[in-house]
Amino acid sequence: MMRRSRVESFEAALTMTNEDEVGVDYSLLRDAIAHDLNNLLTTVLGCSDELSAVLSRNDPARRDVDEIRIAAEDASLLVKLLDPRASQSSLTLELLDLDALLRLTVRLVRKLISRKVSVQLDSRAVGLTATGDSVRVLRILLGLVISIGNRLEDVGVVLISAASRDSETILRVDGSPACTGEARTAPLELVHLAHSMNGSLRGLSGAWELILPTSASEDFNPNVRSLGLERVIVAEPDDLLRSFLVSTMGATDASTASDAATLFELLEHSDRKFDLALISINLANLDPQEDYPRIRKLRPDLMLAFIGSNGSTANHLNALLRGDDQALLLYKPFGVSRLISVIADMMKTK
């Protein structure tokens, strides 16, 4: 059911210009829809991650949970990809699920290029990992496949493959032999996206290769409870997401807040030493840019994980957090593995 605050946002987006015409503030509508969708996807991703961790591979329910998780991952990437502000958002380097990324690329491009062109995924790509920004990688792959597909003149095969070499993972988009010839230069925008992730993009005869660093995270543990957090604050206005985050953290002492006043009551008047605060930038009466210094002054050693979606407020806050290795901005939607990863990174610097 739509929360009342979100309904009010929709109503505010519709303004009567005269008796016969309705003017629509589409940016406000977009933000209202994205906010609720991101909250739901974050909860679905997190719950499916936790269920996958406790179900055996032979459990009949495992297949359903995996399908739910894959659908949520695809929806999450699409929300980010279609957001016009995504290309302006800060880089998010993470351990990529290449299986999900490549499957989604194949499904999307089949809708965007001629049906006479077959898009195939090499099965040897399954199980490989890389480090990068999921949205940027997806943008690059879509651009390369569409470009090669257009060169095939409505007939041919585009093969997407992956291989691991030393400390690199190579994603290859191949249209040969029909596209063979002089190596072509990739669009400058895609080259910049690859460089932003410490990767590179090179053109070959009839193919392109996206080269990304392979993650060396051997000690990655998908159990958030293994982090040993005892006291946490979860400040989130959405009841469902707040409940999920509290459950996921598994702390022995979890305090919650649904507005800024309650959050500062905890920070100012509680004598408890908190390990971590998860704070939504959408809390009522919270000004993230002004209140972050206030929070940091009250709790100099507290790990801060702000939660938000793409937008000017989030991006300005992210810029403000640079230089503070005990604070970061986590963009929604995200899964349990992403949440664990960013918290673990902060704990390493304490």
Description of the structure:
The chain is of the alpha/beta class. It has 2 domains: 124 residues, Heat Shock Protein 90, CATH 3.30.565; 125 residues, Response regulator (Rossmann fold). The chain contains 11 helices and 14 strands. The strands form 4 sheets. Strands 4-6-7-9-8 form a 5-stranded mixed β-sheet. A 5-stranded parallel β-sheet has the order 11-10-12-13-14, with helices on both faces. A hairpin with a 2-residue loop joins strand 6 and strand 7. Helix 2 packs antiparallel against helix 3 and helix 2 runs parallel beside helix 7. The radius of gyration is 22 Å and the shape is elongated. It starts with a helix and ends with a helix.
Topology:
Layout lengths: L3 H10 E5 L2 E4 L1 H29 L5 H23 L11 E4 H15 L4 E5 L7 E4 L1 H18 L4 E10 L2 E7 L13 H9 L3 E5 L2 E7 L17 E5 L3 H11 L3 E5 L2 H10 L6 E5 L7 H11 L4 E6 L3 H10 L5 E5 L4 H13 L2
Parallel strand pairs: 4-6, 10-11, 10-12, 12-13, 13-14
Antiparallel strand pairs: 1-2, 3-5, 6-7, 7-9, 8-9
Helix pairs in contact: 1-2, 2-3, 2-7, 3-5, 4-5, 5-6
Largest beta sheet: what is the strand line-up?
4-6-7-9-8
Q: Overall pLDDT, averaged?
A: 77
What sort of overall outline do the alpha carbons produce when their principal axes are compared?
elongated
- Count of individual helical segments: 11
State the CATH topology of the largest domain: Rossmann fold
Could you say how many structural domains there are in total? 2
Strand tally:
14
CATH class of the largest domain: Alpha Beta
Let me know the largest β-sheet: 5 strands, mixed
The CATH homology group name of the largest domain: Response regulator
Classification by helices and strands: alpha/beta
Percent range of helical residues: 40-55%
